[in-house]
Amino acid sequence: MLAGPPPTYNTGSIPPTMHQPPSQMHGNQYQPPILPPNFQPNQQQFPPQTSMMNNGMSQPSVQHPYLNQGPSPSTQPDISTPPIMNSQFQGTQPPLHNHPPSNMNGAPSYKQNQYPNGPPSVPHPYPNSGLPSSNNFGPPTTGTNPHLQGSQPPPHNPLPSNMNGAPSYTPSPYPNGPPSSFPSGVHPPPYYPNMPGPPSMPGSQPNGISSYPGQPPSMPGSQPNGISSYPGQPPSSGPGQQSFPQSRIDADMVPNVIQVVEQCQEKIQEPFITNAPGLLPPIVGTNFICQDQGSCNPRFMRSTTYAMPNAADMVKQSNIPIALSISPLAKLRQDELEPPMSNFGEIGPVRCHRCKAYMCSFMQFIDGGKRFICCFCEAATDVPQEYFNHLDHSGRRMDWYQRPELCLGSYEIVATKQYCKDEKWPEPPAFIFMIDVSYNSVRSGLVNYICHILKTDLLDYLPKDKNGETSTVRIGFATFDKQIQFYNIKTSLGQPQMMVVSDLEEIFVPLLEGFLCSPQDSRGVINSLLDQIPQTFANSQETETILAPVIQAGIQALKGANCSGKIYVFSTTMPIAMAPGKLSNREDKKALGTEKEKTLLSPVNNIYTKLGEECAQNGCAVDLFVFPNNYYDLATIGEVCRISGGEIYKFNYFSIENDGERLLDELKRNFQRTTAFDALMRVRTSTGIGPIDFLGNFYMTNATEMIFGTIDSDKSVSVELKHEDKLPADGNTYTQVALLYTSISGQRRLRIITLALTVTSSYTTLYPACDLDTIMNYITKVAMRSVLMSTPKSIRDSIITQAANMLACYRKHCAQATTAGQLILPETLKLLPVYVASLLKSDALTGTLTLTTDDRSWLIHRLMSMNIKGTSAYIYPRIYPLHTLEENSIPSSMIRCLYERFADTGAYVIENGLVMYIWLGSQLDPTFVQYVFGLPSASHIQPEKCRAVELDNPLSKNVRTLLNMIRDERNSYMKLFVIQQRDPLESFFKNYLVEDKGFTGGASYVDFLYHLHREIRNILQ
Ligand SMILES: [Zn+2]
């Protein structure tokens, strides 16, 4: 039984991956965060619960619903309905003739003869990149789109319904009429018993959007054949009953992401309550609420498995990585509990005297409350007198529910002076803006635009603490080309003063005071500075720039002010001027995809690495906004961001028209997200297991502590754990993250996050406790790091080997009873093959022919710090139909990443967290373009310039709402392209349809399953 009323939220009306906008979630009513039962903090912001129960004697025993669906941890998994039990997999070797083995591992075909005349001339519209100019897109886009004009014959789908070229399976779908219920997530085509063909073409409809049917029936890929044979809703049939006449597996017969997510979503009826060790949280794509009752909210930390193998041998056999993904500042839902602040007063945080772990809900008090036993190392520590409290008859402290550290999995502590540098309270952080004013920067309009948005918009978005009234951030400005210009913005001056530094070898900041000022105090001077900078440099002819001295100057300025902070660098060209950090062009696109690419993707020297280290040690980070038209050498320069914990934003061929809105939006998001400065993170674990490897963007000077100039709510790190000893089977194991940091208001704090896992010696318990999203996040990061050390082929091979071994071990230990030759996937890992197939051909890992070296470096940088939600969308992009949005304010079910699922009368948005495409079918009702983009016809669409404009009709409103929801979910504006079916750019868009065969090679999901199955059988033989 739960204390208090159940939370009032509704998860059914919105796509599971999407968080609901506040207005839809709660109406206009304030909903207090969900608190643990009887939690009565004395802080004002946490009102006591109105109804109390059970006197705190016993914990409510709510099992998470997600656990109930699979086998219970202690029982043999139910292998009678595995996701795949198909006769195709039995006995005989699967046919592989369609795809030569060289392609089976997802390797891109970098065969020279693929493009005998060189790669296609279409530039890669990568994420943050822009396109050189719209006239490079191939055919002109004005007035000549043959698919939308004239009396073309009804289009046939450009691809056969079976992408593999195999015979299509077209049974009579509904001999007795349509089934009464369709599998969730699959939208049935309308059933037209008396209609031999599709309804009239949208183009012939009278004006008005009402002509958008729910789901067009004319789409070959959405024919009911797939739906009727869908095995995921199992049931009726055992393996023997599922026989299909076709010679190849149909895409509808394999586990699919959309269905898994939607089924998990349906099972989520109540909050996920963390009141016992080892509870597997809902999968990442679902929309759920967490109630912290001892272990942390999974948004802060997830584990690859919630049942820790008790011995190293089990890890070795299973090949399941043992790792944590940690996002210590993750954004929570509005109705979840932010870690409350604990104050231990003068004595400071209470910690185990031996292993230094912080107080948490799993420490056990003994001796009437005089000592506590550490859950990590089992040492007993005396309770400081100031902290003493009596125990109740169950051995629990009387103030259990009043103290966050005793009953919650995450809480914060106001640090004492011992936790500050030199035992001095820190100053609030400062932001420094360093603006490139060279010829390129001025000419593109960038200088003017940045100054304009800072003045009119951004300075009002400077961050403040949750309860703070105004921002305490001080700001400073410098500009640079071959020299650095500093500006004194002291309010008493009335007008800003410029000071030029041209000695770049021994950089110094020529201002003792007046460089960093409060924007509230100096707003007048700042405004006139931002007016004057564009004028001063309007006629700049300087094409060469410097960079390392600029960053060095930023560090010096922050050091001089004795504060942490951020250095925002806006840079347009690679630094080639004579100065430290000068670089030269080493772009060699032919090397990408070959054994030589690691040299290209590694820094050419350590100058920027050293700068990053200096940043991290001084509590600051560099956020780099690059606007290159040519090679920039991000592999080298990006090091300063990687080591300091900063971020790279990339705008190729910047123009205000195409990118201005995105730049402004990204800067606002950057300012507004929760950020910790001058941070130090440490992971502690129970005796017998310990952190061994750390992945992410940070700096380390020893084997245990991660140092971040800054870390924010969008960032995560992965920590691999290694067995040092055998763990007691059937016990628990604990992990605790401690993040020491300076808040935006200058307060030194600790955030403590604790997670309890169970321990197991049985594979049949291990597999059902796996969290695939975390496993994929970890595998992705390992692969990204390997790109700099290994070859693309060996990275792919090792991922395949790992996946095959994971599944083979399951087959061997958990599913012996099944027929040899069957492919059996554990419930929790049934999407492993599709995710691995997708990762293997992802552009970060393989590149594509038109992806630049800088794009690759940027991708690697982003993925290394990406949280699980981010990698999940990157690996399997989300697709929503837009043409159904006229009547429904929220999209119907997501679409699988298969081209055949796109109706040519439809419009869809696809996003992977880094880029967004809107795809318009060739037979889309022309009014869609009018109602959404405000253009007279599709022939006016320019892929990069097109926007969902604000128009007064429901479709426009709903499309814009959806796009904004996606942006908020990813916390990124994302570059948007509007692509029309059969447009030359469509091939780039198809690259994100990861279940299909890759654009540059790489097996389709179904083909990869064959390959993986063969690998598994080889292992088992
Ligand atoms: Zn301890």
From TrEMBL:
Keywords: Cytoplasmic vesicle, Protein transport, Transport. Residues 426-671 form the Sec23/Sec24 trunk domain. It is a peripheral membrane protein. Residues 893-961 form the Gelsolin-like domain. GO terms for biological process: COPII-coated vesicle cargo loading; intracellular protein transport. Residues 40-49, 202-213, 220-231, 238-247 have a biased composition (Low complexity). It comes from the Eukaryota. Signal peptide: none annotated. Residues 117-126, 170-201 have a biased composition (Pro residues). Its main location: membrane. The keyword Hydrolase does not apply. Residues 676-760 form the Sec23/Sec24 beta-sandwich domain. One of its GO terms (molecular function) is SNARE binding. It holds the Pfam family Sec23_trunk. Residues 349-387 form the Zinc finger Sec23/Sec24-type domain. Residues 1-247 are annotated as: Disordered. GO terms for cellular component: COPII vesicle coat; endoplasmic reticulum exit site; endoplasmic reticulum membrane. Residues 9-30, 50-62, 69-116, 130-151, 159-169 have a biased composition (Polar residues). It is found in: Cytoplasmic vesicle, COPII-coated vesicle membrane; Endoplasmic reticulum membrane. Residues 771-869 form the Sec23/Sec24 helical domain. InterPro entries: ADF-H/Gelsolin-like_dom_sf, Beta-sandwich_Sec23_24, Gelsolin-like_dom, Gelsolin-like_dom_sf, Sec23/24_helical_dom, Sec23/24_helical_dom_sf, Sec23/24_trunk_dom, SEC23_SEC24_subfamily. PANTHER family: SEC24-RELATED PROTEIN (PTHR13803), SECRETORY 24CD, ISOFORM C (PTHR13803:SF4). Belongs to the SEC23/SEC24 family. SEC24 subfamily. This is Protein transport protein Sec24C. It comes from Adineta steineri.
